[in-house]
Each structure stands twice: as structure tokens, then as C-alpha cells.
Design brief:
Length: about 220
Amino acid sequence: MYNSETTLRAELPSSRKLMRSTILAALSAAVILVTVIQPAEYGIDPTGVGRVLRLTEMGQIKTRLAVEAAAEAAGQKPVAEPSIAGIAVNNSQPASPTFQAANPKTSPVATAAQKTSWRDEMRFTLKPGEGMEVKMRMKEGEKTVFAWTVEGGIVNYDTHGDSIGRSISYEKGRAVSSDDGDLVAAFTGNHGWYWRNRGEADVQLVLRTRGDYSDIKRVK
């Protein structure tokens, strides 16, 4: 005689219930992938939920830092690297290049910076290894004139833009002490700069802007 109870067949889940549970688990995993993992890790946010949860910006920064670290590990020379290739996540066609970088040696913005009437001027201190981001809210086609300089060192930077489901990198540079030019918004959204101090001492960064933007603020 056996004292243990035998599980009744009626108590076991049916194949139909198992299939439904499997499908629900797969759908849940897909939702988490699209709304949380992709925005937080890769900056891809097709649903817009990642931006509401403030995960998309984190993913974009992670992606930029990974590219930057890979370039440094490969021993590339510290020169500016224009990358005027738009990436529209919800559009198979790349966005049109709309960034016009000026030549620092001949630019009227650079040579007459002190005489220019700027709308906003922002000053920041970056410690060694520290990064920061400034964004402007702009409508498609609006233009902003800018000039930024680094006092006491050099920085890596990425001029970029983002909106719900869209992002673009206008220009990138490594070991740069200044930049100026015109930034024309490829689409309505946030457009600006990300800088990182790769030196061994604190640096002072001064950003001056004027043009068609509704507001400007530091986001990181």
C-alpha cells in the first residue's frame, strides 16, 4: 500500500492552458523588450514609452560611450570625425544632413564671438571622465547659431537630435577644444550637444547660442 496521494489527471493543466500561458509569456517578453530594454540599452524607442520613463536618453548615452570607447581602444588619432548621417528609427530613409559646421579659422562666429549678440550663454565645469548634455527644443527647419569653447583642455563631443522614434547624429569629434556653426533641426524635437572630458584635469566649457529654439537646458 502507498501512502502518497496520486495527482488526478483533472488537476493537471490542459495543453490549451499551457499554450495560452506560453503565448502570454512571449507577448510580455516582447513588450518589455520594446518598451524597456531597447530604449535603456540602445536608445531605440519606437513606442515613445522609453522617453516617458526617461530610459531613451540613457540608452543613447550608453551607445555613444560604447562607440567612443571602441574608438579609443582601437587607438584612433584624436581628430574630428564628421558623421552627418541621420538615423530615423521609424523611417527606412536616412534624414537629410542639416548641420553646417563652420571653419574655426575663417568663421565669423569664431572671430567675432565677443562682438556677437548671443541669446544664451551657459558655463559648465567638467571633471575628468565627466560627461554632460545640453538640448534645445526646436521645430523642423529652425536654425540655431552656436559657438562653444573649452578652457583648460579638450573634450569629445556629439552634436545630435532626437524625438519620439527618431534620432540623428549631425557631427562627432574627439579631442576638440572648440566648435561653432549653424544647427538646422532635421525634425521637430530636441537638438543639442553631448560632451565628455577625457583629460586628467577639470575643464571649463562655455556655450553661446542664438536663433530659433523655444528653450535650452542641461539635461545631464
